[in-house]
Amino acid sequence: MADKLLDIQHLGVHxxxxxxxxxxxxxxxxxVHFSVDRGDIxxxxxxxxxxxxxxxxLICRLEKPTSGKILLDGKDVLETEPHAxxxxxxxxxxxxxxxxxxxxxxxxxxxxxxxRPLQLHQIIRSNDLRPRILQLLETVGLRPAEDFIDxxxxxxxxxxxxxxxxxxxLATEPDLICADEPTxxxxxxxxxxxxxxxxxxxxxxxxxxxxxxHDLAAARQLADRILVLYAGxxxxxxxxxxxxxxxxxxxxxxxLAAAPQQGGSLDTPLPAKPGAPKNVDxxxxxxxxxxxxxxxxxxxQQTPGWTWMENKRRVRCxxxxxxxxxxxxxx
Length: 331
Ligand SMILES: Nc1ncnc2c1ncn2[C@@H]1O[C@H](COP(=O)(O)OP(=O)(O)O)[C@@H](O)[C@H]1O
Ligand SMILES: [Mg+2]
What we know:
Layout: E1 4-17, E2 24-37, E3 41-45, H1 52-59, E4 67-72, E5 75-76, H2 77-80, H3 87-92, E6 93-96, H4 110-120, H5 129-139, H6 158-170, E7 176-180, H7 188-205, E8 208-213, H8 216-222, E9 225-230, E10 233-239, H9 240-245, H10 250-258, H11 297-301, E11 307-309, E12 313-315
Parallel strand pairs: 3-8, 3-9, 6-7, 7-8
Antiparallel strand pairs: 1-2, 1-4, 4-5, 9-10, 10-12, 11-12
Helix pairs in contact: 4-5, 4-6
The structure holds adenosine-5'-diphosphate (ADP) and magnesium ion.
């Protein structure tokens, strides 16, 4: 049996938006559930604004959920470590951010950035700090490490900075890293190197990744499974091969059609019926119904639940079954 590491149950975050007289609720993330096994790479894919970063932040506890549970090794972390600064959790679940330029402090050296987590989590004695930092730099391919350790971020390229950010995330030897579009700000040639590095890390260190991306080709290359997100809700989950070969949800089909063969970007406008994702003051029904060319009456009336298929595949769409979200039991 697979070794379940993280279990996300019905996670949600709703923001109050608007002014005094036009208050609205934005459902940035709604009723999201999925799990990640040890050493698994799961890609979270969706267009801009679909809630990918918010989910990554919720999992790394940089954002507070309004509902739901986060279980690590079966323990409800919001209950056992109620303070967001939960040190043990932070040690085990790390984040890599999208912007390698903003995530490193320009006034500090590479050595300083990497020494912080090592000291904060008391992972290493002061005498051993420098050798461990050199080792981390080697691991992320910054070689010879002596050439990089005393540098400041401004003298590094974007790809090198992202490698430092990855090394910093690795310092605590985490079980899980949430990587929020870690390659989207990098040149195409460097993107491939970083994806290869993440694949190697999983192989060598059994680190699990939640890989947030709008690039379906990168998701396929890196991930075991792909989760498709639309307007804050998951609409499909399948193995990467199954999803790319035969996307079921009309939105997943649209994403694939919109993605160029190589390095497809889903941030480009999609060739769909016009309409915005419906997650502000949402009404019952499928959030995608308005843009869906196959929408039926029921799609606009009741939110679809999950239909399960072979190979642990699931899709939230009435084209494949008649499960309603309000009748659904927790699976
Ligand atoms: N703190 C916040 N307050 C209000 N709205 C937010 C906040 N954080 C995110 N959002 C909104 O939640 C939605 C999802 O955002 P995000 O998770 O950044 O999407 P993605 O990473 O998929 O582009 C967006 O509409 C965004 O504007
Ligand atoms: Mg984002």
